[in-house]
Amino acid sequence: MIVDRALAILADRGAHAAVVVMGDLPELKSEDLAQLLAALDDADCAFAPDGADAGTNALALRLPPALSTQLGHADSFARHLDAAQHRGLTVTTIRTPSLAHDIDEPGDL
Questions:
Q1: Which residues pair with 47 in a beta bridge?
Q2: Is 93 left (phi over 0), alpha (psi -120 to 50) or beta?
Q3: Which of 6, 17, 59, 97 gets the highest tally of CB atoms within 10 A of its CB?
Q4: Which pLDDT score, from 0 to 100, does residue 108 have?
């Protein structure tokens, strides 16, 4: 996956953490990004689910990543949690209204 390759490149270039955010979050705030990054102080990864707790709208990972991203799957949030659990990683879930509100259908506008 392209995101996983980009994370590997960042790690190779010396980055210690990364945040991945979906492009359909019209209410995204800088505080959301700060909260995701701050979560890595106490956890290996942080996931922000959509409003239905199905998809993953944003994630933060320590680098190099200890798991592959599961973006693009309708149940990516559960997949991320499962992958982290199987690898013994600590996880923080970030739930904010602005991270949960994504645009998947016209009614989401």
A1: 59, 93
A2: beta
A3: 59
A4: 64
